[in-house]
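Observation: inputs received (chain + nicotinamide-adenine-dinucleotide).
Thought: call the complex predictor directly.
Action: predict_structure
Action Input:
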Amino acid sequence: MRIYLIGAGVIARTHAAAAAKLPEPAELRVADPNPAALASFREAYPEAAAYDDAAKMLASEAARDDDIVIVATPPFLHLDGVRLAFDSGRHALCEKPLAMNVEEAEEMERLAAERGLLLGCCAVRYKGMLHNEAVKRVVQSGVLGEIYHVTFVNKWERSRAGIEYQPQSRWFLYRARSGGGIAMDWGPYDISTLVDVLSPSSIDIAAAWTAKPETAADPTDVVYDVEHHIGAFLSFRREGVRAVAVHYERGTCTHGQEAFIGEIEGTKGAVRWTPYDSRQPVVLRTDRDGKVVEEVVDPGERGPFTVMDLPLVHFFNHIRGLPSLANVNGRAVDHYRFIRSLYDCAETGERRTIDIEGA
Ligand SMILES: NC(=O)c1ccc[n+]([C@@H]2O[C@H](COP(=O)([O-])OP(=O)(O)OC[C@H]3O[C@@H](n4cnc5c(N)ncnc54)[C@H](O)[C@@H]3O)[C@@H](O)[C@H]2O)c1
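Observation:
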């Protein structure tokens, strides 16, 4: 198995670490035009063959059926990277957000179909976490009765990518490079997790909003034109079952209170968890004799993989024909369409409906 990394920045290292944990040996190649990024990557992974140009790297040897190119550059370069991968005859696993806009995402899907290759997106990073799997089992068991409401709220007071988090990567703040703010940064994980747990075949966005809270730490020496707090009222639909109302909120900057809440309410019970923190318990609440009963759900034994490993692990499993939580081709694009539709709805005030493939 050969892994080709386009980009040698922060996230590329996590993919290199994941490659070392795959069940079969993986050879690493990496390309980045920035000599400092390349040198520092090679300090950590001296075994990686390094190139200053991705096209050169991919042209250096003939493609094999199971080669994986991981596109780990800022979003404005994702389509270029995916196109290079497909042109070289290799599968592409692209970092999130998949693209800058829906047209780019559809172009990726079209190229994948044309070449008979796979397009994966790293938005699946939190799929397969033990506590999310435990929540899924509770939902699927029927113990909650008819599910009617979900609260999915995750907001930090100060954790903006490009400011408090990873301040060296200022591109996060510039819409023309990042595609957007928190909706593009964390929205892909949220939608991927929610769809995994609730399995809708379509999602209505009834209302959405975006905001850019101001602080004394806001940079003034670079372009900073992205939002850091978003929310929406959603309806998850699937034939034959009641539509589920979802209160969705995500922020990396708020003057309000930090909150990390996942809660699914049904007519017979509720399950509550902290969606991205597996150290927190998954709590099932039901009724016995007219009183609330709480029970902690056992999430099971932790496996060898961290969330940073999972995008590559899921994609690898998909390529090998093993059970996999990867979102590939149309499915990856549908999820991306949801993110862009959040912006559309917030800007226009008009409702949007997104079909979700294969849920
Ligand atoms: N940093 C994180 O915690 C994190 C987590 C999850 C996902 N991501 C995603 O990963 C992607 C990259 O983010 P990052 O944090 O690693 O950014 P980064 O700024 O650390 O690294 C990006 C790298 O891409 C390189 N690059 C630029 N143009 C290139 C080209 N033409 N060919 C090859 N390399 C090129 C840059 O030189 C830089 O080294 C983004 O889509 C981001 O949303 C980042």
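Thought: report the result.
Final Answer: The first helix runs from residue 10 to 19. The domain at 2-95 is CATH 3.40.50.720 (Rossmann fold).
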